UniProtKB/TrEMBL annotation:
CDD domains: GT4_PimA-like. It comes from the Bacteria. Pfam families: Glyco_trans_1_4. NCBIfam families: stp1. This is TIGR03087 family PEP-CTERM/XrtA system glycosyltransferase. It comes from Sphingomonas kyungheensis.
Length: 381
């Protein structure tokens, strides 16, 4: 089979949420079909990683349109910014040049390039329109209007795409249900994220990043929900914990920290920026935290921490997509976060047992091979 794989970002390295999912799916499909990857690059300087050469033919189209230009085009044309930001004549030509028996389209921004008359699976991952609706609830008046507009227009586009493709995929059953509740029709299927439990294993790490009581948060640190999460935690949760544990520190581990994140750096807060390997930081964590107020689907940061046998304290939003069966602690407000984390800091045996249960749950429930098996039938592989 000739399979066209469309992606809004090069699916390598698998070091952030979207790339983790797209890379493992690409690898799964490449073992079963001849895959042609057509993706956007982050500017003209990005080249195809050699690690992808054995998986697919690779065509990269530079994405150079600024957010301001995309917003102006969206307002002029009555379109969502999410689409105009990824509008490209070069991408249209690249897709048209590839013959395909089927298409796997990763991320809603790429749905505008689905070729007519070719069987297609659309991987929305999350309900992006719902994410913008959530942003609208939190924004100031001008931004609130823009986010509501984006949620409305993008939601209508998502529903049109779902009605024409062979299947629409989401990262969790909760996201799939949310999409249906919003009026979407067609075949809507949850295909969950997995974890490479052999790579994310305590025994795989020899260098531990830090010593002493340490809380660790991992993620892309220019992503708004991550930024808001660490700011809230550092301001509303960490001070109360530090009064009880004066040497306790928080490590914010992830690339591209915004100015707001960098401003959190202090003797109590480590801001690492990009790291070559997140696993030593997870191994060093006394507790991993996921205090996201707005989260969609399955949080890879939580799966990775669980796989590393670390105790995790997460908000309900961050834990919702994961079938954790009680192997992490859920706490929403600041007082609940303080109590949950303090209980683990005070009882190392409980923390160790919770981490061991979390790793066992990940191995049982989130192996990539099992998670991606439904793709074979959906694409006729």
């Amino acid at each position: 089979m000739e399979l066209l794989f469309l992606a809004h970002r090069v699916p390598f390295p698998p070091d952030r949420g979207d790339r983790i999912r797209s890379y493992h799916i690409l690898r799964h499909l490449a073992a079963r079909a001849r895959v042609h990857l057509v993706a956007f690059s982050e500017g003209a300087g990005e080249v195809a990683p050699p690690e992808l050469a054995g998986l697919a033919s690779v065509t990269l189209i530079p994405r150079t349109r600024s957010q301001a230009v995309a917003a102006l085009a969206a307002l002029t044309k009555g379109l969502p910014v999410s689409l105009t930001a990824f509008a490209s004549a070069g991408m249209r030509r690249a897709v048209a040049a590839r013959r395909a028996d089927a298409v796997y389209c990763f991320s809603g921004q790429m749905a505008q390039y689905l070729p007519a008359g070719v069987p297609a699976v659309m991987d929305f991952v999350d309900v992006d329109s719902a994410k913008f609706a959530g942003f609208a609830e939190q924004g100031s008046p001008p931004m609130r209007w823009m986010m509501r507009r984006e949620a409305r227009l993008l939601g209508a586009f998502e529903r049109r795409v779902a009605a024409r493709v062979d299947a629409s995929l989401f990262v969790s059953a909760a996201e799939a249900a949310l999409f249906r509740e919003g009026g979407a029709t067609g075949r809507i299927v949850p295909v969950e994220n997995g974890i490479d439990a052999a790579a994310f294993a305590p025994a795989a790490v020899t260098d531990v990043a830090a010593e002493g009581a340490l809380l660790v948060f991992t993620g892309q640190m220019d992503y708004r929900p991550n930024v808001e999460a660490v700011r809230w935690f550092a301001q509303d949760v960490l001070p109360a914990l530090r009064r009880r544990y004066p040497t306790l520190r928080l490590a914010i581990v992830g690339r591209a920290p915004t100015a707001a994140v960098q401003a959190l750096a202090s003797p109590a807060v480590i801001v690492t920026g990009a790291v070559a390997d997140v696993r030593p930081w997870l191994a060093a964590a006394t507790v991993c935290v996921a205090p996201l107020r707005l989260a969609r689907g399955i949080q890879n940061k939580v799966l990775e921490a669980m796989a590393m046998a670390r105790p995790v304290v997460a908000t309900a939003a961050a834990a919702e997509g994961i079938d954790h069966a009680g192997t992490l602690r859920v706490a929403d407000d600041a007082d609940a976060q303080v109590a949950a984390i303090a209980a683990l800091l005070d009882d190392p045996a409980q923390a160790t047992a919770l981490g061991a249960a979390a790793r066992a749950r990940v191995i049982e429930r989130y192996d990539w091979t099992a998670r991606l098996a439904p793709l074979d039938a959906l694409l006729g592989l």
